[in-house]
């Protein structure tokens, strides 16, 4: 069984060498969709009976491990020196430095790697992260799928 939880957040970014508009500093209302695989829990009397994982716990873990850090941050490529140094000059600015250019593809892969460690099977139902989908705009998205990143 697959279940999916959607969480939206805001962040700034730029694609430094982009041929068009995306080289400018700008932001998006990103949407992250977290898809988990697992068997439905059948343990009698537990809160999670009938679920793969409680949607509330899916969200809580994503917030703690990823979204609280990325929401209202500027996501900057480590190699984008001019912008990174500018952001570092702003006292207390919320900046996330990434090892790759913050395209939808790279953000989805980065989110997958972070969240993969966070979703742990505690009910013996083979729970695992299966896919992270990130929408950069309502029309544009990227999928990081287990075994394909
Ligand atoms: N494969 C990718 N292509 C592009 C990415 C990306 O992450 N992966 N990112 C961008 C830009 O960041 C940009 O913000 C998206 O701009 P645009 O293509 O203009 O998207 P819109 O939804 O605004 O375009 P519409 O044509 O209005 O739908 C660019 N490319
Ligand atoms: Zn953009």
From TrEMBL:
Source organism per UniProt: Thiobacter aerophilum
UniProt entry tagged with the keyword Lyase: yes
Gene designation: queD
Source species taxonomy: Bacteria, Pseudomonadati, Pseudomonadota, Betaproteobacteria, Burkholderiales
Family: Belongs to the PTPS family. QueD subfamily.
Enzyme class label: lyase
Catalytically driven reaction(s): 7,8-dihydroneopterin 3'-triphosphate + H2O = 6-carboxy-5,6,7,8-tetrahydropterin + triphosphate + acetaldehyde + 2 H(+)
EC number: 4.-.-.-
Cofactor info, note text: Binds 1 zinc ion per subunit.
NCBIfam families xrefs: queuosine_QueD
Protein name stated in the entry: 6-carboxy-5,6,7,8-tetrahydropterin synthase
Functional pathway: Purine metabolism; 7-cyano-7-deazaguanine biosynthesis
Keyword set, alphabetical order: Lyase, Metal-binding, Queuosine biosynthesis, Zinc
Cofactor (UniProt): Zn(2+)
Keyword Transferase among record annotations: no
Transmembrane segments annotated in the record for this chain: none
Record GO terms (molecular function): 6-carboxytetrahydropterin synthase activity
